[in-house]
Amino acid sequence: MEIPRHWRLKKQRYALVGEVCPHCDAKIFPPRDVCPECNGEAKTPYAFSGRGEVYSHTTVYNPPAGFQDSAPYTVAMIKLAEGPVVTAQLTDLGDQAVEIGMPVEMVTRKLRSDGDERGLLVYGYKFRPLELHQVAAAD
Amino acid sequence: MLAPMVSGQAHLGALIADFAGMRGIEAYTTEAAGASGGAALRAGYLAVKSGFVDTVLVVGVEKFTDKVGDEIESAMATSLDSDYEAVQGLTPVSQAALLMRRYLHEYEVPRAAFGIFPLIAHVNGANNRYAMFQKAIRPEIYNGAGMVSDPLNMFDAAPDADGAAAVILTRADLLPASQSYPRVRIAGSSVSTDTLALHDRPDPLDFRAARLSVERAKYQAGIELSQIDFFELFDAYSIFAALSLEAAGFTERGQGWNEPVPLPIATMGGLKARGNPWGATGVYQAVEAVLQLRGQAGESQIPGAKFGLTQCLGGPASTAITNIFERID
Hints:
The complex is a heterodimer of chains A (about 140) and B (about 325).
Chain A: H1 3-8, H2 10-15, E1 17-20, E2 27-28, E3 44-47, E4 51-60, E5 73-80, E6 85-89, E7 103-113, E8 121-129, H3 132-138
Antiparallel strand pairs in A: 1-2, 1-3, 4-5, 4-7, 5-6, 7-8
Chain B: H1 3-6, H2 12-19, H3 36-50, E1 55-62, H4 69-77, H5 92-107, H6 116-125, H7 139-143, E2 147-149, E3 152-153, E4 163-170, E5 183-193, H8 208-221, E6 230-232, H9 238-248, H10 270-274, H11 281-294, E7 307-314, E8 319-328
Parallel strand pairs in B: 6-7
Antiparallel strand pairs in B: 1-4, 2-3, 5-8, 7-8
Helix pairs in contact in B: 3-11, 8-9
């Protein structure tokens, strides 16, 4: 694994920093400097709240290298409150069944290892269920 | 597509030219994930069509089985968005499962409905001696299959396989006088792209690139959908088959799973029964379309077939390559 590459993405991985379009106010994640809504230049940083809901989900039983320790694990598409959708693992589920529309929030967790090659771990965002009283407070 | 990762060997163009006894000729590799073979066909087509090149040999090849388990999963996952999908442990099959779950949710489709695609593929594969699986399956087999990445089961996913296929493209005036087969031409050809990451699309259930490439290929060929006799679609996953039928316009959105399927598909077994040799798949499809149009498809022959549509996809239609083949009488 490549340390500089993961380091370059630390703002996205640790804090969900994307961009906001100065022309049409679209929220953009991941940052791409060009607004996918209006094609205008969009370089203004924007930190997402980390709140969202499950758009779709599945379970990975046959993981790629670096993910063996956590398999089987749940991967979901999360529709963020501000609009964009991200792909991320769900965590802290306990016995809770996952459903489309389930409210979730971002947390920072270990994503993968390099199989003891150099001991490198990649951390980043996952999402966990939001408790009902938290949903009410967020509203 | 996988050779650099699975075999530690890039640069296959020069390698194959050398060992095929054609050292010195122009040769190179094209890469577009699961659509790599279609990209090679497209490059060959453009070369001949432009007049720069007289004759092209298009070779699709994949050696898959030298690696297993997490190593092959990692190699396949390079077709995803590395920074925002693969880093989360997503794999191509689980990406397809995300699509399938959403489809079932939005359109309230009975889960068992997707069995129509592997059932058709296996019936047709039984007549193809080059197919990986040459045996029909019963609906009970599909419904009882083990889960691979829920809701996607083992029969929703085509088997990854080793394989190779080749076609020769040339101008009509260069055909030898002894050539006795009915001639087949590429009447329409188109490549379109979409976001690599599924989550970056405004509507993930719209295979936009597949739709655009079919529209453009049809426009070039000057034909309507109703003139197409069969569709070699990209059934790497049964959900892809449904979305491809919808994108091409053969059915309405949300109806791709409905029986009967509106035209013959996967006539030689498709990816599901013939096998999915990734980078070679697009070339297999071309070979199968040509066999159909020449009347050499054996038990699977579609009588009098005139136009055949082929489409291969890289990822969930992040690349879509569509060709219309026509028999010239």
